[in-house]
Amino acid sequence: MSRKKTKHVGVYQRQSEDKMFKGAPDVCFDITYKLGSRKHWEKVGWRSEGVTAAMASQVRAERVRNARLGDTLPRTYKPMTLTEAWEAYLAGHLRGKTSEDMSLSIWTNHIATPLGRRCLGDITGHDIAKMAKAMERKDLSIQTVNHALALVRRIMRKCIEWRLWGGPVPKIAIAKPDNGRFRYLEPDEAEALLEALGKRSSLVRCIAEISLRTGMREDEIFRLQGQHLDMKAGIIHCQGKGGTWRQVPMSASVKAIFKESKPKPHRHVFESAIDGGGKINDLSKSFARTVEDLGFNKDVTDRRAKIVFHSLRHTFASWLALKGVPLQAIGQLLGHSSMKMTQRYAHLCPNAVRDAAMMIDDVIGRHKS
């Protein structure tokens, strides 16, 4: 069987003359890399075993990395079950993080039983897909399924990074859920929500009102420090997703909230009541309880229609769209990375395109019949 290059550097494939897989000749993937001055060839596996060219490329990258660190031969790893890998991941990476509880729940409820006892090298993409299908049959949300798939992938990748396992990570297809919220608050609902929040917690009310009046995300508000507020210019220097910064204008009402909070440079504007201050990592249950008391989510089954804290940001954008604010300006205020994200608000100004087209008559004169 002659080897043929693939699109991946150092990865070759050869077609079997007698083995068949899914009605076609089976394909074996090999990799080549240098050990010192010598070229070394290594068989990774067959397509019928779940191996792909991309997976072979991952194995090659590990071999090259090992050689650069001084290993002269492919490393032999002790067999490790996914449960053992999870325990290493939990202790060495996850412990103490805000995502620990959620990851622990997902592991216990959805991953441990079907895959926990399996050795990492024996887990195929098909096995992981079967786990996802079983979750879907329980009517779990796409987001929950995706969390489980992503957790398996993170565990495996960390074990490769820590050189506990040689890989490769099976191909894991993660579906993109439709997270776009379509329900926003009416002005009277927003007023009722803020009033009710104030009776429970003035801090939660302040944070909620800032989100409603600026469109800032929950964690963006949590990260705010005194030096990020330019009260004279009326500008909030906001750190968004991926560490990017944008400028958010303050309305008079937002200025009043910040003045009352008396922000100090290099201190968080809204500090946690736990351990003497510091950054807030999560809102108390006050918001969810208030929404429940107001009945906003009664009999609502579609999660996109439920009122959550993020609904305040969605409401801000929806109100602007209804007022005829251009989508590009809304996207800049929200810190969207692309107009595709902002386009979800286009339906709230359905006459904008038509009205714009009609304006041409004002420029060149109305048509005379």
Question: Distance N terminus to C terminus?
Answer: 79 Å
Class derived from helix and strand content: alpha+beta
CATH overall fold name of the largest domain: hpI Integrase, Chain A
CATH class of the largest domain: Mainly Alpha
Helix content: 40-55%
Pattern of helices and strands: EEEEHHHHHHHHEEEHHHHHHH
User: pLDDT below 50 for ≥5 consecutive residues: which ranges?
Assistant: none
- The number of helices is 15
What can be said about the biggest beta sheet?
4 strands, antiparallel
Spatial strand arrangement across the major sheet: 1-2-3-4
Number of strands: 7
Q: Which architecture of the largest domain does the CATH hierarchy give at level 2?
A: Orthogonal Bundle
- Shape annotation: elongated
Rg, alpha carbons: 27 Å
Mean pLDDT, to the nearest integer, reads 86
Strand content: 5-15%
Q: Please, how many domains?
A: 3
Identify the CATH homologous superfamily of the largest domain. Answer: Intergrase catalytic core
List keywords for this structure.
alpha+beta; hpI Integrase, Chain A; four-stranded antiparallel β-sheet; 15 helices; 12% strand
What does this structure look like?
The chain is an alpha+beta fold and 369 residues long. The chain has three domains: 4-68; 82-161; 187-353, Intergrase catalytic core (hpI Integrase, Chain A), CATH 1.10.443. It is built from 15 helices and seven strands. Strands 1-2-3-4 form a four-stranded antiparallel sheet. Helix 2 (82-94) runs antiparallel to helix 3, helix 3 (100-115) packs across helix 4 (125-137) and helix 7 runs parallel beside helix 11. The radius of gyration is 27 Å and the shape is elongated. 27% of the residues are buried. The mean pLDDT is 86.
